[in-house]
Amino acid sequence: MSISVGIVTAQRAVFDKPLSFRSGAVLPRYELVYETYGTLNAERSNAILICHALSGNHHVAGYYAGDEKSLGWWDNMVGPGKPIDTNKFFVVGLNNLGGCHGSTGPSSIDPQTGKPYGASFPVVTVEDWVESQARLADHLGVYRFAAVVGGSLGGMQAMQWALAYPDRVRHVLAIATAPHLTAQNIAFNDVARNAILTDPDFHNGDFYQHGVVPTRGLRLARMLGHITYLSDDAMADKFGRELRTGKLNFSYDIEFQIESYLRYQGDKFAAYFDANTYLLMTKALDYFDPARELDGDLNHAFAAAKAKFLVVSFTTDWRFSPERSREIVHALLHNKRDVSYAEITSQHGHDSFLMQDEQYFAVMRNYLDNVAWESAA
């Protein structure tokens, strides 16, 4: 029977070596907040890095003391006896640079000005994140990860690990992701960003100094995003055309249950997430394209990879469709890399990678059991 990892505590690593961003900006000093679960073996061969998606963070599993409801965002996947088994693996989760859960980001104080970085925080890319993650691995004494795992934007980071540090990762698990965003996905992100950028309380990214939060823009951005994370069938099954009061009110107030749900999700998100971080995360999504400088040749891009891959997609994920995962698989096969592919039947859309699904979990468990066997050999 699988159980939680229990009470966990966040840790902080400070890096004084400047980090050069792909944009040309330089961050002289920064901090990364992270959590670890399980035990690093004597050979240091059983470490797994979890890369988070847009709204994720370092709190992957377990809960905080005094608050058993504060479960990590992937607690159903990570823990003793779970697919990512902390009895076998040393699991690392971190909050990426530019985040708003403790790592250095736009809301952090810039030591040169004594004020929050705000709009001056550098635009960050997946490549920048992976560079900072490699430094965290050095800090933890992990030269080579048994696996790097991520869904959505996290899957892009996992792939970048195989390309940037081919000798430092044995396996990549890329889930519900893509080799680059489609024009439609970039369009969704632009609309979401504009909801924030045009909020009068945004103040060009320096809203901290005005004592306000661009709540309306954040709420709209999250509502739009949430629509794209769900499938039409999932929405129909959960909400249909159900009215809150059982009758039409002939007004612009909330009438349908789906409207109530989206506004609740938007309000909840706006209460804890940073607007500048949202802008940075969506731009990182837009920019990721390992084949951009190779004339769009994805086969050429993946030639650098040495890791074995598990690629997982979900049938109703229309934002990161199975066709996009198969592009990754084809590029890996072209390069004669070891790759396994699973297309999971699910009604939950893009959010399927966060859900507990028997087939999905069996695929993850079976693959990672082999990774654990390798780590112990």
Automatic annotation (TrEMBL):
<feature type="binding site">
    <location>
        <position position="222"/>
    </location>
    <ligand>
        <name>substrate</name>
    </ligand>
</feature>
<dbReference type="InterPro" id="IPR000073">
    <property type="entry name" value="AB_hydrolase_1"/>
</dbReference>
<dbReference type="GO" id="GO:0005737">
    <property type="term" value="C:cytoplasm"/>
</dbReference>
<comment type="similarity">
    <text>Belongs to the AB hydrolase superfamily. MetX family.</text>
</comment>
<keyword id="KW-0012">Acyltransferase</keyword>
<comment type="subunit">
    <text>Homodimer.</text>
</comment>
<dbReference type="GO" id="GO:0009086">
    <property type="term" value="P:methionine biosynthetic process"/>
</dbReference>
<dbReference type="GO" id="GO:0009092">
    <property type="term" value="P:homoserine metabolic process"/>
</dbReference>
<comment type="function">
    <text>Transfers a succinyl group from succinyl-CoA to L-homoserine, forming succinyl-L-homoserine.</text>
</comment>
<feature type="binding site">
    <location>
        <position position="351"/>
    </location>
    <ligand>
        <name>substrate</name>
    </ligand>
</feature>
<keyword id="KW-0808">Transferase</keyword>
<feature type="active site">
    <location>
        <position position="317"/>
    </location>
</feature>
<dbReference type="InterPro" id="IPR029058">
    <property type="entry name" value="AB_hydrolase_fold"/>
</dbReference>
<feature type="active site">
    <location>
        <position position="350"/>
    </location>
</feature>
<keyword id="KW-0486">Methionine biosynthesis</keyword>
<feature type="domain" description="AB hydrolase-1">
    <location>
        <begin position="46"/>
        <end position="340"/>
    </location>
</feature>
<dbReference type="GO" id="GO:0008899">
    <property type="term" value="F:homoserine O-succinyltransferase activity"/>
</dbReference>
<feature type="site" description="Important for acyl-CoA specificity">
    <location>
        <position position="319"/>
    </location>
</feature>
<dbReference type="GO" id="GO:0004414">
    <property type="term" value="F:homoserine O-acetyltransferase activity"/>
</dbReference>
<keyword id="KW-0028">Amino-acid biosynthesis</keyword>
<dbReference type="Pfam" id="PF00561">
    <property type="entry name" value="Abhydrolase_1"/>
</dbReference>
<dbReference type="InterPro" id="IPR008220">
    <property type="entry name" value="HAT_MetX-like"/>
</dbReference>
<protein>
    <recommendedName>
        <fullName>Homoserine O-succinyltransferase</fullName>
        <ecNumber>2.3.1.46</ecNumber>
    </recommendedName>
</protein>
<keyword id="KW-0963">Cytoplasm</keyword>
<feature type="active site" description="Nucleophile">
    <location>
        <position position="152"/>
    </location>
</feature>
<comment type="pathway">
    <text>Amino-acid biosynthesis; L-methionine biosynthesis via de novo pathway; O-succinyl-L-homoserine from L-homoserine: step 1/1.</text>
</comment>
